[in-house]
Amino acid sequence: MKHWWKRAVYACILCLCLCCTACSANSQPDPAVLLRETLSQVNALESCESRFSNDLEFNAGTEQQTFHSAVSSVYFADPFCLKSTQDTGAGAPSVTYTMTEDGFCWFYAETEDGWLRTPAETLNTTPSEQIEILRLLKQATDPQFVREEEVEGTPAYKLEVTFPADILRSSIEAIVSASGMGDGSQTLVQELLASTPAVYGYCYIGKDDGRLLRMELDTTEALNTVFSKISGDSVKVSISKSVLTGELFNCNAAAPVELPPEAASAQTVEAAG
């Protein structure tokens, strides 16, 4: 019995160890800190590649409408360079380049008349302004931790985030214009935006490096809620799909970008305005 106190101490130590293990297993990162640290890394990127797509399908009366846009980008910070491939699903994708040459920034685009270049001296060349998914990330607020999962084999934290109503502006404008509702009035667009419910999406952040991997927004329900509030209009709108997705990859390891040889003789034109 004289060693009873030793057994009691061992039992207490074991109990403490088990409690610490349980607490560690149940702990989760602070979502606000995760999002803040991810945002803080954005403009430190030396290079990256991204994909971003927007798909919208709806019925206006008996007519079905489909809109699709996709952008793939390759970005370098110094010297600044951006290759952008845009695909609207109608015809061949278009490719543009924004390049720094001898200290000046130029925008290159191929037209029916050949290659043209336009000065872009005032362009904000930071990643957060030039990469679609990063512009989306800047608007995300009120992060909530969902769970840990993998994004194409990479361990990640999944966060639910909230977006401002203006995230739906381009979709609402497209629906109003295509349906002829209110003769495409911008006043109507603003009124519809004012009635927008909370818009939620998901943000995936790398568990090991804290970098953004992917973002997803399904705004189908929010848009249906908006257009269901319209009364007295002869055109009834039903949205079957409204999805935005974006991916960021090859951070600081993007594939090199070279201006096509035929663009070397591009005609210089002044920017409009």
From TrEMBL:
It comes from the Bacteria. Residues 1-27 form the signal peptide. This is GerMN domain-containing protein. Keywords: Signal.
